[in-house]
Amino acid sequence: MTSGDPVQPPRRVDRAGIVIAVLLAVIAVVLVWDARGLQSTAMYGMGPEAMPVLVASGLALLAVGNFVDALRGNLPARESADPVPVVLILIGLALLIGVIGFGGGFILATSALFVTTSAAFGRRAILVDCAIALVMSTLIYLAFDRLLTLSLPSGPLERLL
Amino acid sequence: MMDTFAALAHGMAVAVEPMNLLYALIGVFLGTAVGVLPGIGPALTVALLLPVTYKLDPGGSLIMFAGIYYGGMYGGSTTAILINTPGESASMATALEGNKMAKAGRGGPALATSAIGSFVAGTIATIGLAFLAPWLVDFAVRFGPEDYFALMCVAFVTVSATFGDSPIRGLTSLFIGLTLGLIGIDKLTGQARLAFGVPELLDGVEVTTLAVGLFAVGEALYVASRRHHTEEKLEPVRGSLWMTKEDWKRSWKPWLRGTMFGFPIGALPAGGAEIPTFLSYSAEKRLTKHPEEFGKGAIEGVAGPEAANNASAAGTLVPLLTLGLPTSATAAMMLAGFQQYGLNPGPLLFAERPDLVWGLIASLFIANAMLLVLNLPLVGLWVRLLAIPQPWLYAGILVFATMGTIAAKPSVVELSMLAGFGVLGFLMRRFDFPIAPVVVGLILGPIAESQLRRALAISLGDPMTLVQSPISATLLGIALVALLAPFVLKGMGRFKASED
């Protein structure tokens, strides 16, 4: 729908596109490198290493295709992106993984994610959000752990319930 | 013919058992409630609600799925009409006219024509599914492994290259999915591929982890990154909910035409509801007696695409149930749902578990009828869901999204993969790579590989077996044409763009 837009910025090399092409080529190399360690035990036909090599060749071709597209500046126009909220959410995910990894339990972990995400979307009432997050994740924990008997990881808070 | 009626009647008997009716009702309700949240399409709705069905028996959970599927679709069109954020490209046409109608105070009739149109289209298309499926199953039992491999090649190409904006970016997405599908223990020789010594990777990448990461986490990151661009505005539903006589008169033909576009295109292993919805939209634009209303809120522009969308959703179930071939992200999630019980859709499933397959098809009818009864009266409730402030909405979505993974596999590796796929989904959105081919590649890649290896083992390693079977040769030819066509037509595409 937008491809017919007559007002287009002058075409130039797209650096992000080059990075994408290089990444694809790297994945292709990793695939071949990994496949070389496999032993082909098949008497006839393909062994386990054939498919990775096939996929790697496809990726290599696509790396070239993406590279050409990037050189020609053929990538669709992008709007500016704000990195701060993205980083905030990623911090939230890292906190979640850390809390789960160190046995902090479901409620603390998801509360941390809730508060950081909410802050990423512009909320500044951190304390209110903390309260909401704790209540909500406790309710989810009770509903799923007790009622649906899905086992969610427990930490200090869960043991109090 | 009679067999189909008998099987369908048997399926109905399964579907109307009180417990199964309850599952369908819960599915429809949950599906709509999640699907109505902005930015959440039907595929993600199914992915998010998969953990809820873990503890049910396969029959009940598939019936709940049918409800979630249709509920998610309906919820998506409500969002498209009321806040102009189509959760998926198939709702874009609806958003075009529907949101204009809502702005003009005709949100009620827009919602009504989309609900009734979805019901009409879904019902007709499900009848089509019921009659087409046994016929295709008869055909598919003759397929050898090389034919299956060729069929998957067709699906790979059509899903990624033929209908997207850029065949190169579509194929790139597909190959990322294929790469992810290689991770884990090779089933034939027991050797680990791409596991890098991490024990959690030996089981391979979970489809739900990938889908939830790409769709939910990726979407949240993307929306957060461009929050400064758009301010979504919720249109209140003003005036009457009901359609006038004039609305009915202008809606029924688009419903039927939309169904005619949607079902056949959905049933072909071509994937996606975008093509039929846009075909339907442009057809209605050409045929309407009120061309001046198009772009300003013409009811035909909601009725037709909505019907096409729903009909093609039922259409994608044809290749999914009869051949085990998912051709859209939503169908891929349905397949993941089947696999969670060790069930593999395909001709064998029709023979081995007819109660399950026909129960599912019958509950599609029931879910459709329930949606019609449930949705219009409850529209006030759905609108209130739409009014949840964005920070809490996305925070809640992320909590729910991670909860599925935490419940299934509470390991640091699995959660890191979820976050990693989230970043991948964000980058793919940002650089305009389609997402569905990744999921399809992950699911179909290993199946295609094992069929190819089986075919080559039977032929004692002779690759000519792929072109000696007439079915396989034809399908590979189609795949080749579908792969080359967008490159050949590129020049013509430029011509078309200047014509618009």
Key attributes of the depicted protein:
heterodimer, A: 161 residues, mainly alpha, disordered N terminus, B: 500 residues, two-stranded antiparallel ribbon, 22 helices, 2 strands, 73% helix, disordered C terminus
- What ranges of chain A have pLDDT less than 50 throughout 5 or more consecutive residues? 1-8
Mean pLDDT of chain A: 86
Mean pLDDT of chain B, nearest integer? Answer: 85
Number of domains of chain A: 2
Fraction of helical residues of chain B: over 70%
From the helix content, strand content and strand pairing of chain B, which structural class follows? mainly alpha
Major β-sheet annotation of chain B: 2 strands, antiparallel
Structure report:
The complex is a heterodimer of chains A (161) and B (500). Chain A has two domains: 15-72; 83-160, no CATH class. Helices cover 65% and strands 0% of the residues of chain A. Chain A has helices spanning 15-35, 50-71, 83-101, 106-120, 126-147, 156-160. The longest helix of chain A has 22 residues, at 50-71. Residues 1-8 of chain A have low confidence and may be disordered. Chain B is built from 22 helices and two strands. Chain B has helices spanning 2-15, 18-35, 42-49, 58-83, 92-103, 107-140, 145-162, 167-182, 207-225, 245-267, 274-287, 300-323, 329-339, 347-352, 354-375, 379-386, 390-408, 412-430, 436-458, 465-468, 470-488, 490-499; strands at residues 184-185, 192-193. Chain B has a two-stranded antiparallel ribbon. In chain B, strand 1 (184-185) and strand 2 form a beta hairpin. The radius of gyration of chain B is 22 Å and the shape is globular. Chains A and B meet through helix 1, helix 2, helix 3, helix 4 and helix 5 of A and helix 8, helix 9, helix 17, helix 18 and helix 19 of B.
